[in-house]
Model the fold of this input.
Amino acid sequence: MAVILKLGKKFQVTYEVVTPAKEIKMIKELFDNYEDAAKRKELLDGETCMFSPDSLFVDVMKDWLADPYFRDHLKKYHEAQKNYDVYLRSLVETTKVKDVNSAFANSIINQLCATKSIGRNSALSVKTIRACKLLLISTCNHAIKMGIMDENPFNEIHISDPHDFKKRPKKYADWTYETMIQIFDACKEEKLYVIMQIVFATGMNVTDVLGLVWSDFYHEKDKYYIRTNKVMERMYEKELQFLPKDYVIQKYVHDKKIKLKTQVVHHYVDKENIYSIPCALYELLQNWKKRSKEIYHFDINPNSLMFTTYGINPYDDRLVLKHLDQTTLNLKLPRHTLAGLKFFSSKTSPDGRHYRDIYYYEHNDISFNQIGLTAKEKAVKINKEFTKSMKKELPAKDKKDAVDLVKQLSEDKNIRKKLLMKLLEIESGE
Done:
């Protein structure tokens, strides 16, 4: 019989199970409230174990997926159900519970790493593999609580991510002129490249840059300027209470299923600053505006944001840091920050000049051909690959249909935009 104990603000359900080794094992589960604890106790008291070590592991997994507690408390239940149906069921369907050991666990994970993602010709993402591992862990814990397993072999397995930035040293390196040139030249994300150029040329904060709209850069005769009186920053709800309502331009709310303590807010600030910028940067911004309209089909109205993700959400601070981290990781460089770049821009070189003056004196052309494939080249490449793929997939008699489809895509701006943005999204991994 299960027993409920109150431990501070939580409630503990304690009960006994008999292990395959015929030993009595005490199981303890914690709950945030009494109602959940009482439901669990009721299930346990009325539960008769129908499984043994000779049962199929897949049957135990199905039982766990059907468990009311699992359905009520797992945030991503539907994702777990999908991973079971698509990836896991075929891998475990002939294995008995007693055979689930370390060797089996490693074999399953290795097979998942070699599995192709449904709908894509690429390996499963680290995120999906970890989600599958989580379901396997919880299934084994379910078996342990029923007394038909002694240990959970999946707890011992670590799935590494080659792009796991959290594993990199948290200490940030100082910028040097050589590393700056290296990072600028290697940057494949156009938005990040433009932002770095603005930060370096002006010494602006990244929150100011992310808050820029198209009307904020302009020229008068032979002088070029950027004006800023807005920011895009991450704020707590308590901070928002002190921000005048007429200052708020727009709040960007993330997926309601994801509970975040902060939200990204575009708002005015009290002080307006005007920065003089070099001609090369002004031409780069003009080029970025042209590309935003003709290639990405972003909104370029005067009050529209200069930097967005697919013309919908703001290009926020976390995504900027992610792309910068990816760039430095590819170059095998330590972590750098845009705040560090801002500080470096005003530093004085040994010859007495600021590094920003040296850079723009030496680099009259800072156009996008400096950063690998241009957006147009990406679009052309994707179009060619898509046409080739369609012709290969369809029967010979239907090849004309593939050509007609591509022609339709080229003529219909809305369809082309949606398809191109989706393909670019898949390619970039965002």
Remarks:
- The chain has a mean pLDDT of 79.
- The longest strand covers residues 262-276.
- The CA atoms of residues 75 and 257 lie 9 Å apart.
